[in-house]
Structures are given as structure tokens and as C-alpha cells.
Amino acid sequence: MRHLLSAADLDAGTANALLDTAERLKEALLGREVRKLPTLRGRTVVTMFYESSTRTRASFEIAGKWMSADVVNVSASGSAVSKGESLRDTALTLAAMGTDCVILRHPASGAAHRMSEWVGAHVVNAGDGMHEHPTQALLDAATLRERLGSLEGRRVTIVGDVLHSRVARSNVALLHTLGARVHLVAPPTLLPTGVTAWPVTIGHDLDAALPGSDAVMTLRVQEERMHGGFFPSAREYAIGYGLSEPRAARLPEHAVVLHPGPMLRGMEISAAVADSSRAAITSQVSNGVHVRMAVLYHLLASQEEES
Ligand code: NCD
């Protein structure tokens, strides 16, 4: 694997290899007081975040540090980007310093792909506009595997703002590759026009979808990408599409609740459901570190070991 730009690029073999590595790394670090592996000693990883982030950025940094890489964080504010430097010039500057891997989050769809054409370093897409967020899909799959076992034939309902969600796009691609059946539930205004070509079923009734779901993934309503009224009010959104306690009670006993974060409690998901035992939201965050370690390992270390 040279870059990780899109979950749609991952075949089942590669995706499962990444998930297996993440699982092994998790086991290896379990209960250890000193969480430090020497694997990426001497390698330099740069995170470039042009959009806000708490968990993605921190978990890439922790993942790199737990593997002994030197991790440098660059953000748009506080860097020469705020003086008007282009993405390409910033990328070439970082490449000239000997960066081995660039982790990029950018508001433009396709930014990570462009970056991979400009620099010799490995590139990981940490979210490009409304397009993809492949490590989120991998950590979601890791969490579902942990709770449910194999994803083959499992029914995953994704509910909410599919239109603006790179998390949804990456999850649809990866879950399909891993053999799960994906059902989308959203207001018609929050579904992309091309959605009928996706490998999913589509509905608008969350109550009807829940009893047959092995997992439900609630998406954040992404106001920052909305220009205009996509639904009447937060209250009406919550009534139609929020995962409330009575709604969650319609899920089968074993079903898992996911949310990529950040959550808008009371709107997309009630506090009681988010904090319930069927919610795997903090496991998603923990698995995010191991999955990102696995990605860095497969990009930077595995070929070296093979040779
Ligand atoms: C997501 C993102 O930024 O795409 N957050 C994350 O990485 N966990 C989801 C979101 O912001 O809605």
C-alpha cells in the first residue's frame, strides 16, 4: 500500500489485513504501562489539518508516537497557509524537510489525492471535504468486528446527514467490501443525488429500520457545510431522525450504536443512548488509535520488513 486515500480503494484482503494488524497492536499494548513500540523510529510523520479536529488529529499523533515516529503537527491557522501559501507549496516545503508520511485533512474533496501526486511521501486522507474519511471507516469496522464478530451479512443502518458526510461515503464503501448490508435513513434533502447508484438500500423511516439492524451509525448534522434550510428545525430533525431512548429500545438486544463524533446530544442521539452499554462510541475512539497505528505500519514499516 502506497497511500490511503479512499476506503473504496481497499479490497477485502487489504482491509482485513489492516484490521487484523490493528487488533494485534491492541492486544500487544493491552495493560502495558509503557506504550511504546520501536517500529517507526527515525520516521517523520506530519499531520496537516486545514479543518477542526479533536479525535482524528490526536489519534494519528498518538498512533505515531506509540510507534516511536517523530510526529509534527501543522495546522492552517498559525502556519504560512494563513499568509496565503497554496496547498502545493506547503506540501513541497514539508516534503523538502524529509517527511515520510503526510496525514491531510482538507475542506476540498480530492485534496489528499492531489497531494499524493505532488510529494514522494506516503499520504493518508484524514477527511477531504464531503468525499472520504477512510480511517474512520476502518475504526468503525474494527469496532463492529469487536462487538459483532464477522461483518458478513450484518445489517448496518446509517442515519442522518448522508449528503455532507465523508464518514458515510467511506463506510458505505468499506462495509460493502466487508460483506455487510448497508441501509441509509435520511430526510430526502440530506441524501446525495447519486445515492441510488450506491450499494445500499434507502429509507426515511428510522423506526421501521431499527428492529432489523445489527448496528446503527448516527451521523453528525454538518451545519458548517449547509447553505440553506435542509430541515425545518433541530427539534423536528430530532423527532424524525434522532436516536432517542424509546427508539433505541426497538433495536435487537445485540445491536451496537456508533457515532463518529463530535456528537450533538439531544439532536442526533439522546444522552441516555450515547451513554448506554450498547453505544460503542468511546471504543470507536480507542480503536481509532490502533487502526491508525496499523495504517502507519502498513505504509511505512511492512515493506521494509518484507525486503
Ligand atoms: C468526522 C469528520 O470530521 O469527518 N469526525 C471525525 O473525524 N470523527 C465527522 C464529523 O465531523 O461529523
Pattern of helices and strands: HEHEHEHEHEHEEHEHHEHH
- Share of residues in strands: 5-15%
What is the CATH topology descriptor of the largest domain? Rossmann fold
> How many DSSP helices?
11
Radius of gyration: 19 Å
Total DSSP E strands: 9
What is the makeup of the main sheet?
A: 5 strands, parallel
Shape: globular
Low-pLDDT segments: none
List each distinct ligand once.
N-carbamoyl-L-aspartate
Can you identify the CATH superfamily of the largest domain?
Answer: Aspartate/ornithine carbamoyltransferase
Give the CA-CA distance, first to last residue. 14 Å
Count of folded domains: 2
CATH architecture of the largest domain: 3-Layer(aba) Sandwich
Query: What proportion of the residues is helical, as a percent range?
Result: 25-40%
| Structural class computed from helices and strand pairing | alpha/beta
Mean pLDDT: 95
The CATH first-level class of the largest domain comes to Alpha Beta
> Which strand order spans the largest sheet, edge to edge or round the barrel?
7-6-5-8-9
